[in-house]
Design brief:
This protein is α/β, with parallel strands linked by helices and 286 residues long. It has two domains: 113 residues, Beta Barrel (Thrombin, subunit H), CATH 2.40.10; 155 residues, Rossmann fold, CATH 3.40.50.2300. 27% of the residues lie in helices and 29% in strands. The protein is built from eight helices and eleven strands. The strands form two sheets. A six-stranded antiparallel β-barrel has the order 1-2-3-6-5-4. Strands 8-7-9-10-11 form a five-stranded parallel sheet, sandwiched between helices. Strand 7, helix 3 and strand 8 form a beta-alpha-beta unit. The radius of gyration is 23 Å and the shape is elongated.
Length: 286
């Protein structure tokens, strides 16, 4: 089993380049004993909603059925499903041991035979297969604030896969309304369709940031705030501010439903101002 340090190292690589891990065991058949009663862990080389590819040091039989648990990220629920081996290719892999420079390995392709609709959608979002498919024709923009690099990367990828132009930071400093005493957007324009912020960040809490938005007459209506642990008082505070709340680790399908609701409420003209975004970039370059 991989340790926490190894898992975190892979997660920081970004969703589309990140390795994920799967645990599997060959299923028990009615007419034969289970050939592998223990769970083995492998690094997934390729993953889609239809199946996965992995390397393994042992050969498996074509049509072997296996129980699978797939870990993509600590922020994404574990995928539990059943897979069937559909292709096996043997190859020689370089070994770290000088005495044995080549090691025989198997490249194993499986298709998912039993997997829920929600699990398929989760995989699609996580690996970016929905990119370019369900894009809203309107120009969409989001501002994401979270000092957790891994979670911020995950949110960025989800939004980009839906067609959003995303501007993110580890703290509120780069938000245009935070930079100015008054909202710089022209009348009937706004700088972003949504803002997503963590509750605890450097120099300013999420509540202080949102209150600052309101004081400066920010026109953005879709604001969400995230926390790993909500108190009743904090939930009430968020409600008074008109914010949607997410508890970490949030469920991707719930996040997607919130985005659906936000997009349904978009003004047909969807007038976005470019001025504040240019201000963000100019500040970053200083």
């Amino acid at each position: 089993m991989y340790n926490d340090t190894e898992k975190r190292k892979h997660e920081i690589m970004g969703l589309e380049k990140r390795k994920c891990f799967a645990r599997f065991r060959v299923k028990q058949y009615e007419d034969q004993e289970m050939s592998s009663p223990d769970w083995d862990t492998v690094a997934v080389k390729n993953l889609s909603a239809g199946g996965m590819l992995f390397h393994y040091h042992k050969n498996l039989e074509i049509d072997s059925l296996m129980d699978l648990t797939i870990d993509i990220s600590e922020y994404i629920p574990t995928i539990n499903c059943v897979g069937r081996v559909i292709r096996i290719e043997e190859f020689q892999s370089l070994s770290t041991q000088d005495v044995q420079p080549l090691t025989s390995m198997c490249r194993i392709a499986t298709e998912f035979t039993e997997i829920g609709k929600q699990e398929r959608e989760t995989i699609n979002i996580a690996v970016g297969e929905t990119k370019g498919k369900n894009l809203n024709l309107k120009k969409l923009r989001a501002i994401v604030l979270d000092d957790d690099y891994i979670l911020r990367t995950l949110i960025n990828d989800i939004l980009k896969n839906r067609g959003y132009e995303v501007h993110s930071s580890s703290e509120p400093f780069f938000c245009p309304v935070y930079l100015d005493s008054k909202c710089p957007c022209p009348v009937e324009h706004f700088c972003s369709n949504i803002i997503i912020t963590d509750i605890n960040m450097p120099n300013m809490t999420g509540f202080e940031f949102i209150e600052n938005l309101k004081r400066n007459a920010c026109k953005i209506q879709n604001v969400a705030i995230m926390s790993g642990r909500w108190t009743d008082e904090e939930l009430e505070h968020a409600k008074r501010l008109g914010c949607h709340t997410f508890e970490k680790p949030f469920k991707i399908d719930e996040f997607g439903k919130w985005l659906d609701d936000c997009e349904k409420k978009l003004d047909p003209d969807n007038k976005l101002s470019d001025l504040p975004i240019r201000m963000i970039k100019s500040k970053k370059n200083k």
